């Protein structure tokens, strides 16, 4: 039975409901997502949320409740952040929400909010050390983690909405105003000396970060349509900020990548990223598409601790894809076992020097090689490439994801070359050999289970007189598989430049 | 319960097994496909299939049986064509097949073979009148149909393999040899005077036709990756044939689009197309990806008669896609009803002059608008466009399929423009208005069922004082849907250039 989980994030800028579906093996996928722009920060008057703010919030929550009911969601988790936390009447509001819509809201402390950002990142990105910054409408959370453990965290009581109204009087802030903002940010960061000079990636969470990523991707004509884990050099952040802050609001709004409802407050957020990159002496910002609500979800599903390694993140991702795209799992797991066995035996014969990363690439490519069949059996490998390169897989950089997609969908050398040519900013000629070798290994392993019945249980590689002999142990001597091995074997042999022969060892 | 059907096509050139899965509503999708190149025509010695030919066939059939068992196929339908039909010992072979593999094979008459080609075309292409030609290894079937009814059919006892060995002594046939072949083909066609001067499309079935289509697509850098219903002008067929027939075999093999195992016999097939186009005075050849085995399947599933109209073909295709991509059907059917109701009412108010074709485009786009969600909820409309433009939908030309994909996935005018720009050979600026109008109509209808609960049962359009008022009849006055209508309504109003207003008529 599938189960739906709803997460409601009542933020200072927007309220958002995300609905996830959890499959039998516990894997989750987002299935619906709706938001209302509330700008609660602007409704804080003398420490209290005003009537209009309260009324708008209650309306939004009633609407969310309707969607939760329509989607038959039984577990709904509500969290409220800065605006509600800072408001004297915040608890009155959450009580009213619960009374009127039945949604129970937890008001998060700044520390909790920060930790959810950290959890979102560790559950979805290949990073072991880093700084997170989640800048919302009315607060900004930072954390520092090392060896995947949360070391420090802090919540600043300012966000893009409040910084904008505090520092900028005009649409186009003056140089002086901007300098004042920078000084304020530097002073604020200095209260967290544990951020200084870390020289690790700064991971930016939230709408401002997504906008920044999109702006940069358009500028450089990035070849992928994916934002999560997109890296931007510190210099580029400063350049984009300096260009944008001199534009009138209407022109800023027209910049590709800028959200229309965020153009007025985006500068303050970018300035915060710039200051943090400088203070931490970091040369790279990574955009995270996952944030608070994902952290809340991950905690619900996977518990308070992040996965112990990136390998686990990738494993879960592969399992989620297999479930979602209805892969024949006994088949794909068997192909995985055969491919890894060949990989390991080739290594024992000193026929390659690939390491653990390549082994895991092959493993996950084997598990996912049939995902494209969900779309269609014709051109299935093109569809596999499309799926794996276009749908977010947690735990991979973009480059790694492309390599995974190429190996999983490998068909011909020519196709691989055209895929490389489509991503000149991420792949190069040097990748050809890896993809070709692992691609042919996978193609061969797939034919070893062409009937999808796991009839060939094992392959053993032995070297005899300059030739390598693969003996196959199968259920019977005349399997369908044996009649189809010639072509993939000769291609494998050519790609690896090894004389290979198959014998049946029934 | 899903059911699997296997179709085995024992042809003169190749033997092929295709496995289809039939869903609860009777729709079928191909799930596996395997072939062996047997070249049975070459094993016909003095009217008998030689021992090697028989042995190879029996081996292939045993292998097919293994795949049928592995895939748990209960209904397997075997058909044999020219080589077996022409061989004196054909019945002995089919008896041996049945004995050794349990697959019962029906030896088709030439007329039956021809009729299956016609059935394949009528079940998958938008054509009401045409000539089909299916050229195999050892026979060639032609039919003529009008008003979707089969009028005449014939089977010639020659195919690409036999023509090649009969007329060409060398790899590169001489001008004289080629002239002799052309004369022979013209004389043969003249025995079917019902083909003369029909001036209707010639629909070419089989591997030679697919190769021809691919060659032409590469030459003109065609923007779609789809072969079924690809049109080629008669002149272009002659040009390609004349270029290819002067190349040495090895060079012919290297031409993009030519199958390596077909390069030696392809010329004879192309010459047959050329002669038929000439004799029928037809200026256009359409490539069909569907042939004998699909005809056999369609007969099994849909009966002996073809669908009465292309509209039915499109309906079935839409249903198959909805099942396959797990669309929420109560939702998509409701969106369809709302969109068509708006379309009809706009017409009653003389606000558009679209016809039945556009109405059906909107209908099927509404049914299929959510297919991309199967891939991912993020970028779902991009995925919808990918699916609908890349997976074959029966009953559409390529251009029509693109229009359908664009309307179903419509998000913004900008996105539509970029899609048009990607297909300059099929779409133009004149398509923008249609896509934009129907796209916004669909987007608006989708929001009318945003909760997916069919809470708004009807919309009525009335004109009052220069303004058009849409009254919505819903279950309650404060539906989620109503709170979300402002933006899509204002966009709809702008796209249609009509002042529109919504009132709730609870």
TrEMBL record, chains A, B:
Classification lineage: Bacteria, Bacillati, Bacillota, Bacilli, Bacillales
Molecular functions per Gene Ontology: exopolyphosphatase activity
Enzyme class name: hydrolase
Pfam families the record matches: Ppx-GppA, Ppx-GppA_III
Catalytic activity annotation: [phosphate](n) + H2O = [phosphate](n-1) + phosphate + H(+)
One GO term (biological process): regulation of transcription by RNA polymerase II
Keywords annotated in UniProt: Hydrolase
This protein's record includes keyword Hydrolase: yes
Domain Ppx/GppA phosphatase N-terminal stretches: 19-300
Source species of the chain: Brevibacillus parabrevis
Residue ranges of every copy of the Ppx/GppA phosphatase C-terminal domain listed in the record: 313-460
Protein name: Exopolyphosphatase
Family statement: Belongs to the GppA/Ppx family.
SUPFAM superfamilies the UniProt entry points to: Actin-like ATPase domain (SSF53067), HD-domain/PDEase-like (SSF109604)
Keyword Cell inner membrane: no
EC number(s) reported in the record: 3.6.1.11
């Amino acid at each position: 039975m599938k189960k739906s989980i709803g997460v409601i994030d009542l933020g200072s800028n927007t309220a958002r409901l995300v609905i996830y579906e959890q499959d039998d093996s516990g894997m989750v996928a987002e299935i619906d997502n709706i938001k209302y722009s509330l700008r609660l920060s602007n409704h804080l008057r003398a420490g209290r949320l005003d009537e209009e703010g309260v009324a708008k919030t209650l309306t939004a929550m009633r609407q969310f409740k309707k969607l939760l009911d329509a989607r038959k969601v039984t577990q709904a988790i509500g969290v409220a952040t800065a605006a509600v936390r800072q408001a004297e009447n915040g608890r009155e509001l959450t009580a009213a929400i619960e009374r009127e819509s039945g949604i129970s809201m937890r008001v998060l402390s700044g520390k909790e909010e920060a930790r959810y950002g950290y959890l979102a990142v560790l559950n979805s990105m290949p990073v072991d050390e880093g700084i997170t910054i989640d800048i919302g409408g009315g607060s900004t959370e930072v954390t520092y983690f090392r060896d995947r453990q949360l070391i420090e965290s802090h919540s600043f009581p300012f966000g893009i909405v409040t910084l904008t109204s505090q520092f900028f009087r005009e649409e186009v802030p003056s140089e002086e105003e901007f300098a004042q903002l920078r000084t304020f940010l530097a002073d604020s960061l200095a209260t967290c000396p544990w951020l200084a000079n870390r020289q690790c990636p700064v991971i930016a969470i939230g709408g401002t970060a997504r906008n920044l990523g999109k702006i940069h991707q358009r500028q450089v004509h990035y070849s992928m349509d994916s934002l999560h884990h997109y890296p931007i050099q510190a210099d580029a952040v400063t350049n984009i900020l300096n260009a944008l802050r001199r534009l009138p609001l209407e022109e800023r709004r027209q910049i590709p990548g800028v959200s229309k409802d965020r153009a007025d407050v985006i500068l303050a957020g970018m300035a915060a990223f710039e200051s943090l990159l400088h203070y931490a002496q970091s040369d790279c910002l990574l955009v995270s598409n996952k944030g608070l609500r994902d952290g809340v979800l991950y905690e619900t599903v996977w518990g308070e601790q992040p996965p112990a390694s990136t390998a686990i993140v990738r494993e879960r991702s592969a399992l989620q894809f297999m479930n979602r795209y209805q892969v024949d799992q006994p088949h794909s797991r068997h192909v995985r076992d055969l491919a890894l066995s060949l990989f390991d035996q080739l290594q024992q014969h000193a026929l390659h020097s690939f390491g653990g990363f390549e082994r895991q690439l092959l493993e996950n490519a084997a598990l996912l090689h049939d995902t494209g069949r969900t779309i269609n059996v014709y051109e299935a490998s093109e569809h596999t490439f499309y799926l794996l390169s276009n749908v977010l897989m947690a735990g991979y950089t973009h480059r790694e994801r492309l390599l995974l997609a190429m190996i999983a969908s490998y068909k011909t050398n020519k196709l691989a070359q055209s895929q490389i040519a489509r991503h000149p900013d991420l792949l190069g000629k040097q990748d050809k050999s890896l993809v070709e070798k692992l691609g042919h290994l996978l193609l061969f392993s797939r034919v070893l289970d062409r009937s999808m019945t796991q009839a060939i249980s094992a392959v053993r590689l032995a070297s005899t007189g300059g030739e390598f002999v693969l003996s196959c142990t199968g259920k019977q001597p005349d399997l369908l598989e044996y009649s189809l091995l010639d072509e993939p074997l000769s291609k494998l042999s050519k790609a690896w430049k090894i004389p290979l022969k198959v014998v049946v060892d029934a």
